[in-house]
Amino acid sequence: MSFAARSAFRQLTRVAAPSARSFSVMARSAAITQVPRAAACKVAFTQTRGVKTMNFGGTDEVVYERADFPPSKLQETFKNDTLTVLGYGPMGRGQALNLRDNKLNVIIGSRKGASWDKAVSEGWVPGKDLFEINEACDRGTVIMNLLSDAAQSKLWNEIKPYLTKGKTLYFSHGFSVIYSEDTGVIPPKDIDVILVAPKGSGTTVRNLFLEGRGINGSVAVYQDVSGKAKERAVALGVGVGTGYLYETTFKKEVYSDLYGERGVLMGAIQGLFVAQYEVLRARGHSPSEAFNETVEEATQSLYPLIGANGMDWMYANCSTTAQRGALDWWKKFHDASKPIFEELYESVANGTETRRSLTKNSAPNYRAELEAELAEIADHEMWRTGKSVRKLRPENN
Ligand SMILES: NC(=O)c1ccc[n+]([C@@H]2O[C@H](COP(=O)([O-])OP(=O)(O)OC[C@H]3O[C@@H](n4cnc5c(N)ncnc54)[C@H](OP(=O)(O)O)[C@@H]3O)[C@@H](O)[C@H]2O)c1
């Protein structure tokens, strides 16, 4: 652990746990939850019948909360509905299982193969609540399109005839509708079209639900024919496992999502990790040292502190040596990367990213090609080193 991390951890344990304790993940997260969160206390908060207006850094935004939609209310809201979840990938699976546990009438639409088999193994019964895609669409009143984004476009002409007046079309990504010139997905005008986009993977949607917590999510309405689209979208969002829902639009959801995952969430972070690691290795540092100073300390010590208390708190609680260096260097990284972020946003906004994703992920051999590229990352020395380093974590001993 570097001086910065040691110092942050020392500060954390001083506040939360004066006695010596092992530096396990559990101990660390228990400690983190006891640290006062000054920033959180400053959030302004007004509420009217389930709708909250919260002030985020000076801007008021509307937030909906799970507590206002207990299972009994969800069951009442959807008592006349059949919720058809199309696809049993991570997102379809997570949302469908949560809906089922909330005792809503949910069925799965899947093609035969890996997803179908997985659904059967988790208790969905062919002919009862598991059907081929066409039949599931025919039976459903709310069609929850959780096929892969490429498949949503490919199968649109099969699904569309079942989207009759009075039904609702639901997405977890604004992709298909916003890039309709490329996807061909143009919903009929006489149905509600809504979105609930959990801010995380389908696996997290399921795991947090099982822990009795809800993931954050976005909610949006594209078409409101019934006059109840917003209310039903929020209720459905809670039904699939979100805890707080933030209002957005289809367009803003898809732009920010494509941008974020290509940027800091996945693309940029891998690029930064590899660049830092490569320089350390080229300068003679061992794989374990390069990995520890690049990834392990980040994910195990500093990022949890940022998550719990903010970058400002983490900076303020590091050594003055670390503070001086970070304060001097973050602006250089900012200035170097901002043009790339501008280029990335433009590529999202003008549809380049969508067209690439559709073309690549619709190719017959798309899975094999993806797996080959993913294997390159897994084979990189840095991530192979990570496997060994993780074995040495206290909780794995
Ligand atoms: N907002 C968020 O935070 C967030 C996060 C994750 C996902 N999402 C969205 O949720 C949706 C689903 O995501 P996912 O990660 O679960 O998707 P995924 O793993 O890519 O695929 C989901 C399903 O699509 C099926 N599928 C693929 N090609 C098909 C085809 N040609 N015909 C029939 N079925 C086909 C797969 O079945 P097979 O197993 O048979 O291939 C699988 O069941 C997407 O719109 C995604 O963007 C949103």
From TrEMBL:
Q: What is its main location?
A: mitochondrion
Q: What is this protein called?
A: ketol-acid reductoisomerase (NADP(+))
The cofactor named in the record is: Mg(2+)
Top EC category: oxidoreductase
Where Mg(2+) 2 binds, per the record, is at: D257, E293, E297
What residues does Mg(2+) 1 bind to?
D257, E261
- EC numbers listed for it are 1.1.1.86
Q: Which residues form the KARI N-terminal Rossmann domain?
A: 54-248
The record places domain KARI C-terminal knotted at: 249-396
Q: Which residues bind substrate?
A: S319
According to its UniProt record, in which pathway does this protein act? Amino-acid biosynthesis; L-valine biosynthesis; L-valine from pyruvate: step 2/4; Amino-acid biosynthesis; L-isoleucine biosynthesis; L-isoleucine from 2-oxobutanoate: step 2/4
Which InterPro entries does this UniProt record tie to the protein? 6-PGluconate_DH-like_C_sf (IPR008927), 6PGD_dom2 (IPR013328), KARI (IPR013023), KARI_C (IPR000506), KARI_N (IPR013116), NAD(P)-bd_dom_sf (IPR036291)
Q: Which Pfam families does the annotation name?
A: KARI_C (PF01450), KARI_N (PF07991)
Query: Where would you find this protein in the cell?
Result: Mitochondrion
Record family assignment = Belongs to the ketol-acid reductoisomerase family.
A GO term, aspect molecular function: ketol-acid reductoisomerase activity
Show the GO cellular component annotation of the record: mitochondrial matrix
Q: Which domain of life is it from?
A: Eukaryota
